[in-house]
Amino acid sequence: MNAASLLPEKISVVVPLFNEEAVLPQFHFRLLRVMDELASEYEIIYVDDGSRDRSLAVAHNLKAAEARVGIVELSRNFGKEAALTAGLDVASGDAVVIIDADLQDPPELIPSLIEKWREGFDVVYATRTSRDGESFLKKFTAHWFYRLMGKLSDTEIPADTGDFRVMSRRAVAALGQLREQHRFMKGLYAWIGFRQTAVLYRR
Ligand code: UDP
Ligand code: MG
């Protein structure tokens, strides 16, 4: 695909960072390769959630080399949900991607998520088809967590799904209206409604 054939839309990518200095450069260059193919206009927003390593300095170096990088610096570690909220608040794209920096979410899946968004879905989440490499305990606790949440709440939360997703501008705006202090993002994504769908991948 060449730049001329790309649609005139802006895509934001929000990446929460807590002590990710080791993996961040590799993540960044994999992400750039994907985004250059995908969008004529994009921004990458790194949210440093009070990292105690050099993540923030590394992010500033990446920004110095690439003008499409933005940085949000939190004053201490607030946790991933707060970091995501801070990133979503400043993201200005027509679509906003959320992805972890630790490469457990493959940047190469982003085009499949964006494709569904272009088809008209407001929320497209990445659902793992297998939990290879995760411990029995993690699988067991995850399974029961989703069973229990399903019983406690009317809002259905998709299983085997993290924060890795793309959301439309109006879905991000709806999420932004919810200002819970103790945010359970996966519950909030599901609660806002709109057309939502999954893209499956092997982790
Ligand atoms: N993260 C964060 N603040 C925290 C913990 C994690 O911003 O207090 C970031 C982390 O750098 C990564 C993402 O959130 O980009 C997911 O974190 P982690 O890999 O620890 O979570 P898991 O894979 O267990 O969901
Ligand atoms: Mg992780």
Explain how this protein is built.
The chain has helices at 24-38, 55-65, 80-90, 110-119, 136-152, 169-177, 185-191, and strands spanning 10-17, 41-48, 69-73, 95-98, 123-128, 161-168, 196-201. The chain starts with 9 loop residues before the first strand and ends with a strand. Strand 2, helix 2 and strand 3 (69-73) form a beta-alpha-beta unit. It has one domain (8-202): Alpha-Beta Complex (Spore Coat Polysaccharide Biosynthesis Protein SpsA, Chain A), CATH 3.90.550.10. The protein has 203 residues and is an alpha/beta fold.
Short description, anyone?
Helix content is 39%, strand content 22%. The protein has 203 residues and is α/β, with parallel strands linked by helices. It has a single domain, classed as Spore Coat Polysaccharide Biosynthesis Protein SpsA, Chain A, CATH 3.90.550.10.
- State which percent range the strand residues make up: 15-25%
Small molecules (ligands, ions, cofactors) in the structure: uridine-5'-diphosphate, magnesium ion
The tally of beta strands, per DSSP, is: 7
Instruction: Give the ordered list of helices and strands.
Output: EHEHEHEHEHEHHE
Assembly type of the chains comes to: single chain
Class computed from helices, strands and strand pairing = alpha/beta
How many helical stretches?
7
Q: Label the overall shape.
A: globular
Cα-to-Cα separation, first versus last residue: 27 Å
The proportion of residues forming helix, as a percent range, comes to: 25-40%
Task: Round the Cα radius of gyration to an integer and report it.
Answer: 17 Å
**What topology, given as strand order, has the largest sheet?**
3-2-1-4-6-5-7
CATH fold-type name: Spore Coat Polysaccharide Biosynthesis Protein SpsA, Chain A
Which parts are unreliable, with pLDDT below 50 for 5 consecutive residues or more? none
Number of domains: 1
What would you say the CATH architecture is? Alpha-Beta Complex
- Mind describing the biggest β-sheet? 7 strands, mixed
What's the CATH class label?
A: Alpha Beta
Average residue-wise pLDDT: 92
CATH superfamily descriptor: Spore Coat Polysaccharide Biosynthesis Protein SpsA, Chain A
